[in-house]
Design goal:
This protein has 263 residues and is mainly alpha-helical. The chain contains ten helices and six strands. Belongs to the AfsR/DnrI/RedD regulatory family.
Length: 263
């Protein structure tokens, strides 16, 4: 059996070893096929990924060579690819044929969607656990060591955006469950990484306030205000300003600004 991991450095795990190709363009072909597992990727899309709008005259032959090398990789692990992964020729291009659970990006999207469903059903504890499982699949930025052309850049951006949305929803679920003390260290790290994300700053302010650390909550607001003014020349949103006013007045509310949607 074989597993393809793309939520971090690209890995092809088979027989306990990482068999990922080292050649940059072969790696790009594999990543694009894996992100479209069980769907045909046209030779035009693969060519765009590899050479943008300037493919060489030998593009078709070169692409066939890359696919050949990948087929050898999968065949060496699975005895022809029948029981794990294989690449099949399907007009107008190629398809990576895999069984469920072989590609971590695909698994992430499925588990994250399940977490969102549980949230919509108000099964908050289960949603938090499921969302945490989805996030645990990540080992770093998507396709961290893959040279990306336009198609892969779009895929990676989508995955990274879904990751952030999933993280936000998991934080929201943990806050609903009263896990404010546990959230504070994580939120401090996140606001340092995402300095302009007001939603994360608001969650930190609310977590500190809910944990009884009012002075630190007010300082967290001032930190956000200083960052926005220095980098964008902006003030915090009215929602975050109201949160700061409520902290000053010692008022209790239903919490920091929530996600617009949980979809």
């Amino acid at each position: 059996m074989i597993r393809i991991n793309m939520l971090g450095h690209l890995e092809v795990i088979g027989n306990g070893r990482d068999l990922a190709p080292s050649a940059p363009r072969v790696k790009s072909v594999l990543a694009l096929l894996a992100l479209n597992a069980n769907r045909v990727v046209s030779t035009d899309t693969l060519s765009e990924e590899l050479w943008a709008d300037r493919p060489p005259r030998s593009a078709a032959t070169t692409l066939q060579t890359y696919v050949y090398h990948l087929r050898r990789t999968f065949g060496g692990v699975t005895g022809g690819g029948v029981f794990g992964c294989d690449i099949v020729t399907r007009s107008p291009g190629y398809m990576l044929r895999v069984t469920d659970g072989r590609v971590d990006a695909e698994m992430f999207l499925e588990v994250a969607a399940d977490g969102r469903r549980l949230w919509r059903e108000d099964r908050v504890d289960e949603a938090a656990d499921r969302l945490r499982q989805a996030l645990a699949l990540w080992r770093g930025p998507a396709l961290a060591d893959v040279r990306t052309g336009s198609p892969l850049t779009i895929h990676a951006a989508r995955l990274n955006e879904v990751r952030l949305r999933t993280l936000q929803l998991r934080i929201q679920a943990d806050a609903r469950l009263g896990r404010h003390h546990e959230l504070i260290p994580e939120l401090r790290s996140l606001v340092a990484e995402h300095r302009l994300n007001e939603w994360l700053h608001a969650q930190l302010i609310e977590a500190l306030r809910s944990a009884g650390r009012r002075a630190e909550a007010l300082q967290a607001y001032q930190d956000l205000r200083r960052v926005l003014q220095s980098e964008l020349g902006l003030e915090p949103t009215p929602e975050v300003q109201r949160l700061q006013t409520e902290v000053l007045g010692g008022m209790r509310t239903s919490g920091a600004p929530r996600l617009l949607r949980a979809s």
